Amino acid sequence: MARSDADSSRESPQGSDRGRHAALAIVCLAVGVGLMANPLYLPVAVGQPTAEYVHTVQPADASTPDYGTEPIAYEQLPPDAQELFEQTRESRELSVADPDDRIDRFAYPDDPSPNDGFYLIEYDGETYELWTRTIESDGAVVLLQRLVVQPAAFLLGFFAVFAGGLLARRAAS
């Protein structure tokens, strides 16, 4: 009997080490898979998205499709629309964040189309395309999650799965 007690006391630490390794392997694998699956639950939206109102102007040419849109004479635009058109024409694109800076004459759809957000403007003997649209962005917190948190979580998850595999292998041997 003394011999069997000694044998069991020697085997007990190995058996408990195997059990701990197996438990740790399961935990590492579960945590690793959860972290690697982070695109399913990240980014978490914080607050309301911010809207940006974008204006794009380019000269109309032969490649401009004929949508049946009648050109608007520059002189017929309200003064705030004229100013915005001139600024946009010089830079080709202009964004404003304040809804009060939008021009009432123009629509700002999420997805502009020839019937919504597309205008032809006659200015100084030339015709220009003016496109208006609304772009919603989630802000800096969501961008930080996408650029830092998601890749870091995925990498940590990969290492956790790798460690879990090593622990499972050790527990099996």
Keywords for this entry:
20% strand, alpha+beta, 173 residues, rod-shaped
SSE topology sketch:
Layout lengths: L1 H35 L13 E10 L12 E2 L5 H13 L1 E4 L21 E6 L2 E12 L2 H33 L1
Parallel strand pairs: 2-4
Antiparallel strand pairs: 1-3, 1-5, 4-5
Helix pairs in contact: 1-3
What does this structure look like?
This protein has 173 residues and is an alpha+beta fold. It has helices spanning 2-36, 79-91, 140-172; strands at 50-59, 72-73, 93-96, 118-123, 126-137. A 5-stranded mixed β-sheet has the order 2-4-5-1-3, covered by helices on one side. A hairpin with a 2-residue loop joins β4 and β5 (126-137).
Gist of the model:
By secondary structure, the protein is of the alpha+beta class. The protein is built from three helices and five strands. The relative contact order is 0.23.
Largest β sheet strand count, sense and barrel closure? 5 strands, mixed
Could you say which structural class the secondary elements and strand pairing correspond to? alpha+beta
Total DSSP E strands: 5
How many alpha or pi helices? 3
Low-confidence parts: none
